[in-house]
Amino acid sequence: MDFLQATRKRENQMDYVHVAGLGIDDKKIPSHLYYLVKKADLIVGGIRCLEKVPDDVRGKRLCLKGSIEKVIKRVLSEQEKGKFIVVLADGDPLFYGIGKRLIEFLGEKRIKFYPAPTTLQIAASRLKISWEDVKVISLHGRGDIWPLFRAVTFNDLIGIYTDARFNPLALTKILLERGVNNFRMIIFEDLGLETERITSYDNIAEIPGDINISPLNFVLLQKIKSSPLHFYPGMDDRCYKHENGVITKKEIRLISIGQLKLNEDNTLWDLGAGCGSVAIEASFFLRYGKVYAVEKNKKRFEMMVHNIRQTGAYLVEPVHGVMPECLQNLPDPDRIFIGGGVGKTIDVLKSACERLLPGGILVVNAVLLGTLERVRKYFESLGWEYDISEINVARSKELGEDLRFEPLTPVFVLSCKKPG
């Protein structure tokens, strides 16, 4: 029994929306899918996919452009009328394709998938590397660059589905502005076509700004050099470039990050970030989140930028500005740490509490009793429950042939959870 006979016998094809993946080197509809396309009342796909449909196929064509939701609603409407529907996609529709959205709208029981090899698989085969080792992200049509920052922070080999906005040249500019210069960029153009081209750049800063790149491209980033420092929670203070000891000491840093109770997809504000030590180490736990480190002092801000680049903690977004005004354009946070930004008024604290999402956690470090009292009274005025811990740390120092302990300045750690 051949494929088509088996397919007809297994199920009533009219009950499904058939989602078929086309290979990148398919010049026309593959023979094992032709039966579906030939029978279709409605064929949905991108321009390139629809161009592969033979002229003798009678089904109406619906181009996937503009609002995907609108197209999917049309598919749902036509299916409810009993129409036979085929959706054409590139590669595997369930791998950064339309498959997930179709399931969300139609439900998995109403869809049948026919996957083909993905662009990633073909690109990996060209380089003779194992594609299972590649961290894949898609920037195609998403308008969100954070997946790129997360990927270069935690991965050595990254595959990127691009689009017109986030094309290879745009990615190069974004990476260099972030200080990322330790990845090789490999650009795959027109894979499977006669015009196929693969170009590798060890130094992305040397990619010509006027280079002509096909809109049909895929990018692979390959780490060629590790960051000077590997970041982790509890790094020694001397690993960071900082000003005259102005740094949250590693013992206090660990306790404060613990009090934040971070979830991996949280958005964190570090206000008065100084050299960025808390933001950098907190980002270790935020592999699907965002970190904004705000500092008004230019010298300390520049130190923070240096530390981010030294550690490769590219997930941290350094923000130079005066609070609370500079917080207006930041997304509302799930977590806030205030280490050096409380000041002599409650303006920053008030703004932080207002912007903190319901159920979010705020942690404040205070050295002065006046600061402690201002924060405590403000929490009480809001009716928020809070905890205060006084942290006393002493570090061993050599004294002759023995050791003594030298105490650090005590720090008060205040933490509270916003009701909701």
Question: Can you describe this structure?
Answer:
The chain is an alpha/beta fold. The protein is built from 13 helices and 19 strands. The protein has a seven-stranded mixed beta sheet with strand order 13-12-11-14-15-19-16, with helices on both faces. Strands 3-2-4-1-5 form a five-stranded parallel beta sheet, with helices on both faces. Helix 4 packs across helix 5. The longest helix has 14 residues, at 298-311. It is elongated, with a radius of gyration of 27 Å. Mean pLDDT is 92; it is low at 6-11.
Provide the β-strand percentage band. Answer: 15-25%
Radius of gyration: 27 Å
Secondary structure tally, helices: 13
- The helix content is 25-40%
The residue-averaged pLDDT reads 92
Number of DSSP E strands: 19
Instruction: Trace the largest sheet across and list its strands.
Output: 13-12-11-14-15-19-16
Shape: elongated
How far apart are the termini? 61 Å
Q: What structural class should be given to the helix and strand makeup? A: alpha/beta
Query: In terms of per-residue confidence, which ranges show pLDDT below 50 for 5 or more consecutive residues?
Result: 6-11
Largest pleated sheet: 7 strands, mixed
List keywords for this structure.
five-stranded parallel beta sheet, 19 strands, 13 helices
What's the layout of helices and strands?
Blueprint: H1 3-10, E1 17-22, H2 31-39, E2 42-45, H3 47-50, E3 60-63, H4 68-80, E4 85-90, H5 99-106, E5 111-114, H6 119-127, E6 135-138, H7 146-154, E7 157-161, H8 168-178, E8 183-189, E9 197-201, E10 217-223, H9 250-260, E11 267-271, H10 277-282, E12 290-295, H11 298-311, E13 316-320, E14 335-338, H12 347-355, E15 361-366, H13 369-382, E16 386-391, E17 394-399, E18 402-407, E19 411-417
Parallel strand pairs: 1-4, 1-5, 2-3, 2-4, 6-7, 11-12, 11-14, 12-13, 14-15
Antiparallel strand pairs: 7-10, 8-9, 8-10, 15-19, 16-19, 17-18
Helix pairs in contact: 4-5
